[in-house]
## 1
Amino acid sequence: MNDFEKQILFEDNHLIVINKKNSQIVHGDKTKDNSLVDYIKDYLREKYNKPGNIYCGVVHRLDRPVSGVVVFTKTEKALIRLNKQIHDKLFTKKYWAIVRNAPPQKEDTLRNYLQKDEKQNKSYITHNTEKGTYAELKYRLLAKSEFYNLLEIELLTGRHHQIRVQLANIGCPIKGDLKYGFGRSNKVSSISLHARELTLEHPTLKQKMTFLAPVPEEPLWQFFEHILG
């Protein structure tokens, strides 16, 4: 089994679910680095001895410095059906985030309007409800270490850098996230945000499925995963 195959959390005729590393890109961009789409196509081409073009549908994305569960489809029919689930808010996504500062409350719902600056590739909280886009998430404090806090976040909307900017706005920038106010970078080019859990309805079987992504193999992540069992 090669390194990429170890990232596969689930695979059938319709879906392939990956535990993304925090340095990988989901889809090709201007860096021209290999993306998960590239890896998936190469894997499918080799495993099933498929000549020619390989289909790989991108259901959703994670920012490059973020790790965790990402779903792709092997058929266009599956992609259309999962896109409809996202539109109908039937996807459930939960993230883990490591922050230095404890949040004001142990659990809360954050509601803001966000405005994206394309040039900076950054989002800001705005009070202009006409220009901003509504963003909502729930968080709760899961665990503490000597210096850090682990939060679980449930996304209720999917906006650009939503978790990063909304947590920074309550004084809890994510560890390593220089863009949103954390004091220093992580040793690897990452931020301590992990897409931990994703629940969906299988596009053909109509069964509810939940995928859980193991955390990165880094000491602080491993500590929190261990104490939570």
Note: The first strand starts at residue 8 and ends at 11.
## 2
Amino acid sequence: MKKYALIAALLVASASSAQSIVAHVNVDSLLVQMPEYKLAQEALQAEQAKFESEAKEMNAELEKGAQALQANAATWTELRQRQEQTRLQEMYNNIQEYMQQAQSQLQQKEVELITPVLEKLQAAINAVAETKKFSYVLDASQSKGQVVYAKGGINIGGDVRAYLAK
């Protein structure tokens, strides 16, 4: 009888120590509330505005050249028209290349600016999870779709927000 009681006690102890506690947090919601994220977004928007302004200038120059070609087509020789068409095509290609490079630079800038913010948020989530002894924390953001059902459970969003406010 004592043997069975001992085995039962060991099973209960091992089952309770193996129990995992799962929590969830809406990472997207926390991220957009962080001042660092807002500053990063403002910097990205300013950078994008610069690129767009430059692209507008280049497009205006291209349009001006196209109008000149059209206006002078009757008086220019065929050779001059072809040269102008070639020049305009090169301008167009340069604008396209500029736009691709600008997009690439914006993406690199976004990674550069957002990565530290994400790392700070992840550190806060890790700290709260360790403090509260959670085994798993799921991202409940709608954009990620990792939590398909959450009724009850433990939402640590407030705790993470408080940790970030320190």
Note: Helices lie at 2-17, 27-33, 35-72, 78-131, 157-165.
## 3
Amino acid sequence: MSRPYRLAGLLRLRRLQEDQAAADLATANAARRAALVRQSRSDDALADHDFDPATDVGAWRSAVAIRASLRSLAVESAAASSMAATEVHQREMAWADARRRAVPLEKLAERHEEAEMIEDLRQEQIVLDEIASRGPARDTLEVEL
């Protein structure tokens, strides 16, 4: 008869915490990828926009205002990417911490399972030895009709 693992509830909790930390990390990575795409688009839009100094003053001023707006958008996108990278780093640390807390309990659970398996095999061997010690005469049953 095997004994239940006493820390099974705590191990389940640690695994749930690790799973939650991994999900948070995945969300942060997705947000970081989206921020990098926005930053790339903003940088591309700024690089693609040029202004022709040969145009009239009104068109030139409009082009300058557009470039200033695109530059502001590019700076905001770069800041958002940086913040997203920081968030990813924090989530990676949280996941690593959750994993660090779960690993010792997992190792203890493995040791418990091994000890239980050894005990089960020992008990089975005792039964087999008992059967073998009875001898062949006792193993055969005679049925009278």
Note: The chain has a mean pLDDT of 88.
## 4
Amino acid sequence: MKNALVTGGSRGIGLGIARELGVSGYRVAIVATRPEEACPETTRTLNEAGVDYAWITADVSRQGDRQRIVDEVYSLFGELHVLVNNAGVMAKERCDILDMTEDSYDYVMSINTKAPMFLTQLVARRMMEQPLQGAKRGTIVNIASLNSAVSSIRRGEYCVSKAGVSMITQLYADRLAPERIYVYEIRPGIIKTDMNLKVRALYTEQIENGLLPIGRWGMPEDIGKAVRALCSDDFCYSTGTVIDVDGGFHIRRL
């Protein structure tokens, strides 16, 4: 059996990824800031799907917690074959970049960018010691955003943080390829989660007016299926690859 670690796995895209990997046969360690008992809907979803999972309550922005996450996962599972760096936050308040505060910038960067940089470092060191399973030792998938490459001046810190995730993907893909650990980036588009509740009506109107070639909201399971595919042995001549799961938003159109 293969084992996976998904940060930010208690809801939204992270839950969609955890569920999809779980029904595909992975044991899944879910990292969340809230304890399991505070997330009954999540546990119901996972249990109804028959997912074999463990729950780790931790804050990925903290160095000590990142080390504890890795220690707990290897204590529980023995080996780790998949790391999905999904945990992420929006700016504390959407505002013009000229009004952005350093406090908000530091908050977003600590979770969205610093955490995957150093959690990947910890996991990669352990993965390198593992024997090959199939065609590789491990897979690392970073969940970035369309804002890795698309400007949004009312959430500048988020854009910068996700652009950083893109470079993290390239750096680790380069470093770990000789170790048969492959690293990928998924850029979700407009995905229906609680993170965009405040702007849901606006996005719905834009989608209905032709914003996306595939004219619907993305769902967390759309991201989960892409992660599942990348974690297979079917992409072992690819690393550092970016997959846009955005309804075709990235296509330049006249």
Note: Residues 3-245 form a domain with the Rossmann fold fold (CATH 3.40.50.720).
